[in-house]
Amino acid sequence: MSTSDDLIDLGDRRLRVRRLTPGQGDGLERTTLVFLHEGLGCIEMWRDFPQRLCDATRCGGLVYDRTGYGRSSPWPSDPGVRYMEIEADEVLPRLLEAQGIADCVLVGHSDGGTIALNYAASDPEALRAVVTLAAHAINESVCVDSIRRARESFATGDLRERLAKYHGDNLDGCFRLWSDAWLAPGFEPMNANRRLPGVLVPVQAIQGEDDDYGSELQLGIIAGKVGGYCETRLVPDCGHAPHLQQPAYVLSEVVRFVTPLALVD
C-alpha cells in the first residue's frame, strides 16, 4: 500500500481508497470524481487516467478497491449474482458518507459503469452526473463467450499470474464472484427496464467499437432508457478499455462533458 492510500473501516468491511488532488487549482469548489473499476480491476489497473482527468477538470478524485478486490477486505458474506446492485445500493453510499463526499460524478469502467448506473437509479442527492466506459445494461452472448475464455485462461493460461500482483489473497474470490455471476443462467447485470428510467442526472456512455464484452447495443439501451440527458460515443479502433486504448480521445470527451457540470453552487 502506498503512503497515499487509506483503509476505510465501514464496520463489516475495509476498503482501500486513494484521494487524488488536481495538479493545479484555482480556488473554486468543484465536485469529486469517484472512479469505479472493472470486474477484475483495482486502483492500479486504472493507470494514470484518474489523475489525468482530475488534472484536466481541476476536480478532486477518489479511487478505491471495491469489496473483495485489490487490497480491500473480502465480502463479509457471499453477495452472489447481485454483487453489483449491493455495491451500488449499500456499499457505495456508506463509503461516500465516510469520506465526506456530498457532491460527485461517478466514472465507471465495465462493471463499475453498471454499478454507477445502478446507484444513479435512486436519484441520490450527492450525484451530479455519470460517465460510463464499456458499461453493461444487459448480458450479451459476446460477453458470455469472452468470460468463458477468461475462465479457461485463468485455469490453464497466464491470466492468474497477471492478476495475482493486483489482488493477492483476494484473487480466487474476486475471479469466482465475477465469472460465476456472468455465466449463471439468466444473469443480467441490472434490471435495465426498472432502474434506467430512474437515472435523471446527465450520462455520458462510451464504448469501444471492437469491445469483445459487449456490442453497440449497450449504448442504445442506456441512451434509450435513462430518464434524463444521455450522450453516447462509440470509439473506433478500441476494445473494452476505451480510457486506456484511446486515452487522448476519451480524456478529451470526458473533460468536455464533466467540466460544465463540475462547479459546486
Characterize this entry briefly.
The protein is an alpha/beta fold.
Strand order of the largest sheet: 1-2-4-3-5-6-7-8
Number of separate strands? 8
Counting helices, strands and paired strands, the structural category is: alpha/beta
Sketch the major β-sheet.
8 strands, mixed
Helix count equals: 10
Order of helices and strands: EEEHEHEHEHHHHEHEHH
Question: Low-confidence spans: pLDDT under 50, at least 5 residues?
Answer: none
Morphology: globular
Helix content: 40-55%
Gyration radius over CA: 17 Å
Proportion of strand residues: 15-25%
Report the span from N to C terminus: 35 Å
**Average residue-wise pLDDT:** 97
Observed structural traits:
265 residues, alpha/beta, 40% helix
Describe this structure in words.
This protein is of the alpha/beta class. It has helices spanning 49-57, 83-98, 111-120, 141-156, 159-167, 171-183, 192-195, 217-225, 242-245, 247-262, and strands at residues 5-9, 14-20, 32-36, 60-64, 104-109, 127-133, 203-208, 230-235. An eight-stranded mixed sheet has the order 1-2-4-3-5-6-7-8, with helices on both faces. Helix 1 packs across helix 10 and helix 2 (83-98) packs across helix 3 (111-120). The model has no long low-confidence stretch (mean pLDDT 97).
Produce the secondary structure layout.
Elements: E1 5-9, E2 14-20, E3 32-36, H1 49-57, E4 60-64, H2 83-98, E5 104-109, H3 111-120, E6 127-133, H4 141-156, H5 159-167, H6 171-183, H7 192-195, E7 203-208, H8 217-225, E8 230-235, H9 242-245, H10 247-262
Parallel strand pairs: 3-4, 3-5, 5-6, 6-7, 7-8
Antiparallel strand pairs: 1-2, 2-4
